């Protein structure tokens, strides 16, 4: 009986490292420039998906305002690079400014609940976008251009994005498996009951909001450096906030690997839809989203779990290891803690 659990434990431990090794080795295999660009933007979106999932998936706080942190990270990185600092210092600065903004936004908005909180995050996003459109230091509505002395190196951008998504996975996993993560899930289930057993919902939400904002701001800085030119209507767009929210919903809200899967699907599918259906991509993407939500509320990860359970039932008679445990490192009845 111990052998399947052991196999599942090794599989769960090794899978992220194998995936990371493959992503690091891909450029050495001579992949095309277009594929490198696609993997880059997918990694950026996946980082934002993991960030939002900390707040929306684990704590149950649905925010439409993560475009604020993405945009602040982009502009902070650009301004720091323009001041002569390294891009990596700019990424860290973008994360720090986003975290600071998260406290300023969270202090008033986390006193609201349900639809009132959602409406507040939409209002903050639009307010920040309007402000940034009228700031001379950031170029206003005309946008901001990043210039670097060194030549463009797409692999440096690619590895920066991979490092960011690896950090986001590590942070998300640590939070999910910690007492802090347990407190967040208690808040998601019943905020008042969580407070009764010693959890401080307000402080917990503030801190997880800051962590999520930091990851999103870092992703915004990485995106801005490669884009070289961006404007408020792009990085602060309401559609950007919607996209960040939808990715973990598609993949499997409340789970680390669900957020990763959602980011990968969004990065690849969105790109293909825009290229092949430039006038209908939003309609097609929305229809696909509706189908996923109606057929499998737990997202694509939930669908994969169903397939593995079917596979497990077929193998039970032969005494083979539990497929759910082998891949996920857990049994099918232990809930969504990935």
Task: Describe, in plain words, how this protein is organized in 3D.
The chain has 338 residues and is mainly α. It has a domain at 33-254. Helix content is 75%, strand content 1%. The protein starts with a helix and ends in a 10-residue tail after the last helix.
Q: Considering DSSP H and I runs of 4 or more, what fraction of the residues is helical?
A: over 70%
**β content, as a range?**
under 5%
State the helix count. 15
User: What's the helix-strand series?
Assistant: HHHHHEHHHHEHHHHHH
Described by the principal axes of the CA atoms, the overall outline is globular
Q: What's the mean pLDDT score?
A: 85
Alpha-carbon distance between the termini? 23 Å
Contiguous low-pLDDT stretches (5 residues minimum) are: 1-7, 325-336
Total number of beta strands:
2
Which tags fit this structure?
about 350 residues, mainly alpha, two-stranded antiparallel sheet, 15 helices, about 75% helix, globular
Produce the secondary structure layout.
Blueprint: H1 2-25, H2 33-58, H3 66-82, H4 87-109, H5 115-133, E1 144-145, H6 154-176, H7 179-189, H8 191-196, H9 201-227, E2 229-230, H10 232-235, H11 238-251, H12 256-276, H13 281-295, H14 299-316, H15 323-328
Helix pairs in contact: 2-6, 2-9, 2-11, 2-12, 3-4, 3-9, 4-9, 6-9, 7-9, 11-12, 11-14, 12-13, 12-14
Write a compact overview of the structure shown:
75% of the residues lie in helices and 1% in strands. With 338 residues, the chain is an all-alpha fold. Helix 3 packs antiparallel against helix 4, helix 3 (66-82) crosses helix 9 and helix 11 (238-251) packs parallel to helix 14 (299-316).
């Amino acid at each position: 009986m111990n052998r399947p659990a052991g196999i599942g434990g090794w599989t769960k431990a090794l899978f992220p490292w194998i995936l990371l090794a493959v992503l690091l080795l891909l450029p050495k295999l001579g992949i095309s420039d277009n594929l490198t660009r696609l993997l880059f933007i997918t990694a950026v979106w996946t980082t934002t998906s993991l960030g939002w999932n900390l707040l929306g998936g684990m704590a149950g706080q649905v925010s439409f305002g993560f475009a604020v942190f993405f945009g602040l990270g982009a502009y902070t990185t650009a301004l720091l690079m323009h001041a002569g600092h390294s891009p990596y210092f700019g990424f860290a600065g973008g994360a720090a400014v986003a975290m600071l903004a998260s406290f300023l936004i969270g202090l008033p908005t986390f006193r609201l609940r349900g639809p009132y909180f959602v409406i507040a995050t939409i209002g903050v996003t639009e307010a920040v976008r309007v402000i940034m459109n009228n700031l001379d230091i950031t170029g206003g509505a005309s946008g901001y251009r990043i210039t670097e002395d060194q030549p463009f190196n797409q692999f440096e951008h690619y590895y920066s994005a991979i490092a960011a998504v690896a950090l986001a996975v590590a942070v998300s996993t640590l939070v999910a498996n910690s007492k802090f993560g347990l407190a967040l899930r208690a808040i998601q289930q019943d905020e008042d009951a969580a407070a009764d057993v010693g959890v401080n919902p307000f402080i917990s939400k503030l801190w997880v909001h800051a962590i999520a904002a930091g990851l999103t701001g870092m992703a915004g800085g990485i995106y801005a450096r490669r884009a070289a030119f961006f404007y408020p209507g792009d990085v602060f767009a309401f559609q950007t906030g919607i996209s960040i929210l939808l990715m973990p919903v598609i993949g499997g809200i409340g789970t680390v690997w669900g957020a990763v899967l959602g980011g990968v699907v969004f990065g690849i599918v969105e790109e293909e839809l825009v290229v092949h259906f430039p006038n209908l991509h939003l309609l097609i993407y929305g229809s696909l989203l509706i189908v996923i939500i109606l057929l499998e509320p737990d997202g694509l990860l939930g669908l994969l779990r169903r397939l593995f359970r079917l596979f497990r039932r077929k193998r039970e008679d032969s005494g083979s290891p539990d497929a759910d445990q082998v891949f996920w490192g857990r049994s099918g009845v232990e809930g969504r803690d990935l």
